[in-house]
Fold this sequence. Notes:
Two copies of one chain form a homodimer. By secondary structure, the first copy, chain A, is α+β, with helices and mostly antiparallel strands.
Amino acid sequence: MSAVARTPEPPYWAVIFTSRRDERPGDGYGETAEHLLQLAAAQPGFLGVEEARDDLGITVSYWADEASIAAWKAEADHRAAQRAGRDHWYESFGVRIARVERAYRFDRTEGPQ
Amino acid sequence: MSAVARTPEPPYWAVIFTSRRDERPGDGYGETAEHLLQLAAAQPGFLGVEEARDDLGITVSYWADEASIAAWKAEADHRAAQRAGRDHWYESFGVRIARVERAYRFDRTEGPQ
Lengths: 113, 113
């Protein structure tokens, strides 16, 4: 999870989820986040995910097409988490659905790709 | 910087920059990153930025159009930083240019937007 995702050649899709947490001990967030990540990775069309959190949390998941994103949005456990997110986990969040048009990657040990 | 960016209605563009740092004391990274963020915010077409870093760093900047992104990529100080990034700041990074097609935002105090 803590690596730059290896995604195929564009075009593909990105879901940029940015959030500020309303942290409360025992609110179940960590367990659910972990479960959802594993669930997302098993969905058709899933290409990869990147995550970082300090004051702000950013999760970018990559998908083959819009249909895969729609199916993931409608997945039952994910819908329950969306409700919990609005009800108590997040102070604020933004979701952006974007079509990746160009991409490049650099790896010190491999040189430019 | 640590807030969910308030961007206009789509379409607009996102540059998703994901990196793993090769951290060395006194390598000038922090100062340059701060300078570049201020410089980016002053560019034509800049709409906002979101950043988070733990093991992975993710910076998503938002732009009005592709021309603004091209101009920012070519800006002199930014080009120097791109070289330093390849030469010593980053172990690996990925850059993805994406067109934001849909977006929504939630704020506890405001309700869904």
